[in-house]
Amino acid sequence: MSYARINMVEFNSEEHAKAEIADYAASAASEFPEAEILISVTTGSESAVVVSI
Asked: Taking the chain, what is the end-to-end CA distance rounded to the nearest angstrom?
């Protein structure tokens, strides 16, 4: 059975947010190979919601 993992993330700056979101996009699939879906949604200049199923 699948389950959802939902994380709200606050970054220290807009630059840090951009860098971390880019890193997540580049490496999430290899770091979570069992995940069916990986989603990162930017919710503000210094925040995001990350969902994995």
From this structure: 10
Token pair belonging to 1: 């059975």
Length of the chain equals 53
Return the structure tokens found at 52.
């994995």
Q: Where are the domains of the chain?
A: 5-52
CA-to-CA distance for 47 and 34, rounded, in angstroms? 25
Say which amino acid occupies 21: I
Amino acid at 36: E
For residue range 3-48, list pLDDT tens digits in order: 999 999 999 999 999 999 999 999 999 999 999 999 999 999 999 9
